[in-house]
Amino acid sequence: MMKRRNTRHRAFDPDPDAPQRCCDMPDCDKPAGYRAPRSRETLNQYYWFCLEHVREYNARWDYYKGMSPGQIEAHLRADIAWDRPSWAFGQSSARPRSQNFNEEEILDPLDILGQNRRARAERRRQAARPHIPDALREPLATLGLDWPITMDEAKARYRSLARKHHPDTNNGDREAEERLKVINVAFTIVRSHLAGEGLEKAG
Fold first, then answer.
1. What are phi and psi of 31, to 5 degrees?
2. Which residues, in sequence order, are CB contacts of 20 under 8 Å at separation 6+?
């Protein structure tokens, strides 16, 4: 049976690109099959050693020799980003930090940003509205009114709803009659509150 030849490069085989020369270690005449960088600043320039002397060179090699702890930390941080400049998340090299983010520059086919803008606008509108007295929340909802409201507006809304739900205009419908009772109670509460506010202002 024919064995398949293993053509994979073994870990300690000489570099196939090694020059035909002797080891750079003084007084060594063995073939130079292994390269090692000359310095931290010239990583693409090499010494060429035999296996024995490249091991010796590598054992003594200290990439960070002569650097302060702060320089070493800065170098490690640069290595994390492949030694390329980086910016804070959401920034780019072409956008100054002081420039505000412009949502209009973003392609948004699902209108996600538009929904967020509308939600923020609605929250601002809600915050700008005067505080609704707790006792009036349900009555105003029953009458379909927003706060603040005047007595004339409340009366006009009440008259409209009363005509709509009066039993005489609904052929004596019991549900319309019950609805009108709820509307009467809601209007009474709103009217009493507005009348009380008027007395306070007058006083």
1. -60, 140
2. 31
